[in-house]
Each structure stands twice: as structure tokens, then as C-alpha cells.
Amino acid sequence: MAKKFLLLLTVLLVFFIPASILYAKDNDVILHLFWANGCPHCAKEKVFLQSLKQKYPALQINEYEITGNRNNLELLQKTGQKLSADVSGVPFTVIGKKYFTGYYNDETTGREIEEEVKCAIKNGCSDIVETLQEKNKTAIDMNSTPSIANLRVPLLGEIKVKNLSLPVLTFIIALLDGFNPCAMWTLLFLISLLLGMRDRKKMWLLGSTFIASSAFVYFLFLSAWLNLFLFIGFIIWVRICIGLLALSTGTYYLKDYFTNRKGGCNVMGDEKRQKVFDRVRKIIQNKKLLLALGGIVLLAFAVNLVELICSAGLPAIYTKILSQAHLPAWHYYLYLIFYIFIFMLDDLIIFFTAMLTFQAVGVESKYSRFSHLIGGILMLIIGILMLFKPEWLMFG
Amino acid sequence: MKVLKIGAVWCNGCLVMRPRWQEIEKENPWLQAQYFDFDKDKEIMIQYGIESGKLPVFIFLDKNQKEFLRLDGEIEKDGLLKIIRENRDK
């Protein structure tokens, strides 16, 4: 009798007790991703989330693009208020009450997100964003994909902006940045002193050390910009500032093209220049080669640092674009080296010509003017794209 | 007519103009031309008021050493030759 009762009880349990009690069922989890066009970190996270979705079928991903949709931006702000979170940067990821600002890589932020997803699947979670959305049903713009349009350029026809490759852009910006004959007064003065020396070996050594040191300073400077943008480039305001900087740089170059037709260099900073020249003289006259080399390295650092601070615009614009390309770290640095080579090209030509012909030569400013025209137009295009179509500037 | 050429070793435009003037002087041996360095010949710079502005500067003087034309920046050889021919008798 007791056996029969136990059997009956078991059958009743199987049929009438909810399956969720018998089996630990997964909870459906919604992950909300607020992202922006042109944000490399967002793109990186989106790729990661796709793989996460395949791994956890219970996971649903809702995406909200905030630059092209005001409602989505408002939803982000409301979510931030609700969570007491700073929402000035994207990607901004929300799972239940947990949120993540920014995305570093799959191993760090990615892992944290996965842990939270696992926890939410196991334990369930209340969805704050969903609650907010119900109040504002029109806000959603899920999975909005930016369309890549073509650019119609006079004479050249239709160009797919995405196809304007990063090496070409690197070449043009570096040429524009480097082709400033008036800025190489230190090198020209150094060459004038080197040409008066009788020791050819010392002449080559000191000159090339100056150029190599200048290039190294520039490399450090560009690397600093790049790493800054890789770190904070996802903040919308940074992109807007760089876009405005590109517009003003483009305007400046075009203005220079139309107003400075005669070329020539402005005479400025007489006292400062004389101080530098005195130092160069002392270095050249130093009979101990090692001391002279050390002196020339320090001189290159000092002179170039001042120049770099004065002309930070183009490096900032270039490294911002570079940081948006999804590249392995060593690719970024290869691009920087390529940039510096093009940047130093006029210095190299002038130095080698002087050393081989024993005559100081100049570069005609008409080439510099031409580079200002091309560069000015390019900067205006970059500025407009950076502000309104940043995804077109995502190479790689 | 005489031409005062003012430049500096560190000035790119001055280096560009140097071979152009060499050719012009070779083709016009009658032309009197004198070079002054911006850093070394301070008296001349003060005399002609070249303490700021652009380099190189070319000052054209007549027989009475009176300035009748001043040019600055990079100037094409043909343009200079035209000025020189037109003012040869000054």
C-alpha cells in the first residue's frame, strides 16, 4: 500500500509540479549597449557581445546608437540618473543594475561583462532600462547600422570614402605636417656650421644624430597622443573637439595658401633664436665627440618639444583617426614610424643634399603652398566627417 | 642701380633665392649686388628697418643710394630680371 502511494505521489509530482522547480531553468537576460558611431571601443565590444550571445542563448542584446538618435541619448541619460552613473562616455553597458563604462578588451572588460551575464542568467535580475523604456516606447533604435555612402569628388568621380586607405591618409597628413620650410631654421643653421667643418665623419655623425633625435622626440609625442586617444577616444566630446580642430586647421591652411603667396619666413624670436644658435655653436666646437653628440641630442629634444607644443593640431587629428582603426598594437607604431619618415622627408633631403654637395639648399615654398591647399581641403573633409559621419573615418 | 640682398643662413627662402641671384648676377655683370646677413650686419638692419617681417628682403637703390623698391619672400627669376632691366638706368 505504501509502495503504491509513493508511486502515485511521484507521478503527480512529475505531471503537476512546474518544471522550473524540478530543473534549474536559465533566466532570460537583457544586455543594453549604448554606443556611438565612430567609437572604436564600441565596435570592439559589439564583436565580443556577438560571441557572447552565441555562448549564452538566454542572452538578449539591445543596442542604442546615441549620436544619431536623440531618444536613445535621453534614455542613456535617464539610465545614468537611475544608476547614479557617469554616462559621458560610451560604450555604456547595462545588465540589470550593473553597468560598465568603456570597453578595454575581451580579457578585462569582456570577462567582467561575461561574469555578470552568467550571474544574471543564474539568479535573474530586474531590468532598469526596460522599465525606463516602457515610459518612453519610441526610444529604441535597435541594431541601427550606419550606411557607408560614396563621396562625389569633382574630376575624380565617385569615391568610396572607406576605400581611402589609411596609408594614403598617413602620407598626406604627415607631408602637410612636415612640409614647413620655415620651421627648420635650427637644422639649416646647424648645416651652415657643419659645412664649415673639415671633419666629414663628425659632420655626418652630428647632423644625422640631430635628425634621428628629432624623429625620436616626434615618435614619443605621437605615441603619447595615440595612447591618450586609445584610452579616452570613446568620449564624444573628444571626437567633437578633434573635429572642430580639423575644421580650424583646414581653414588656417587654406587661408595661408591664398594669403601667403610670396613665401619667405617670418623673422621672430630674435633672442630665443640667438640663444639656440649659441648653443649649437658650442656643441659643434666641442672637441670631445661624445659630449658633442650628447649635446646635439639634448638640443634636438629642446628645440623639437617647443615646436611640437606649438603645432599639436595635425598630430592630434591623425592619431585620433589612427586610434579608431582596429589594429594590433604594432601596426599602430608602424604607422607612426611611416608618418615620421614622411614628416622628416624635407629635413632628410636638405641634410643629404648639403652633405653631399657641400652647399646649403632650400626648399621652394611653392611646394609647401601646394601641400597647404591639398591638406587644407583634406582637413575640412576630415573635420566634417569627424563631426557628422565619424564611422567613415574608421579604417581597418 | 644697386641691390641689397638681406638674408640669413637659417632662412629657407634665402637659400632658395641664393642660386637665382647667382644666375642673375652672372647674366648681368654690370649689376651691383651686395649681401648682408640678418644676424651679423645689425647696423644695416636698423638702417633699413628690417628687424621684423619676412626674410629674404631685397632693397633696390638708385644712383643716389636712394631706395626705390623693396621686395621680400621668394621671387621668381623672371620677375627680378624684368625689374632689373626696367630700372637699369636709375
Total beta strand runs of chain B = 5
Report the principal-axis shape of chain A: elongated
Task: Provide a count of the helices of chain A.
Answer: 16
The first-to-last residue Cα distance of chain A is: 76 Å
Give the largest interface pair and sizes. Answer: A-B, 26 and 23 residues
* Second-tier CATH architecture of chain B: 3-Layer(aba) Sandwich
Number of helices of chain B: 3
Kindly describe this structure.
Chain A has helices spanning 2-16, 19-22, 40-55, 70-83, 106-123, 128-135, 166-178, 185-194, 200-232, 236-259, 270-285, 289-310, 313-324, 329-343, 345-357, 365-388, and strands at residues 29-35, 59-65, 92-95, 98-101, 150-153, 157-160, 265-267. Chain A has 396 residues and is α+β, with helices and mostly antiparallel strands. Chain A folds into two domains: 18-139, 3-Layer(aba) Sandwich (Glutaredoxin), CATH 3.40.30.10; 157-393, no CATH class. Chain A has a four-stranded mixed sheet, with helices on both faces. A two-stranded antiparallel sheet of chain A has the order 5-6. In chain A, helix 9 (200-232) packs across helix 13 and helix 9 packs across helix 14 (329-343). Chain A is elongated. Chain B has 90 residues and is of the alpha+beta class. The mean pLDDT of chain B is 91. Chain B has a single domain, classed as 3-Layer(aba) Sandwich (Glutaredoxin), CATH 3.40.30. Chain B is built from three helices and five strands, in the order E-H-E-H-E-E-E-H. Chain B starts with a strand and ends with a helix. The A-B interface holds A 181-182, 184-186, 188-189, 192, 262-268, 270, 273-274, 277, 360-366 and B 9-18, 38-39, 50-56, 72-75. Strand 7 of chain A pairs antiparallel with strand 3 (53-55) of chain B, so a sheet runs across the interface.
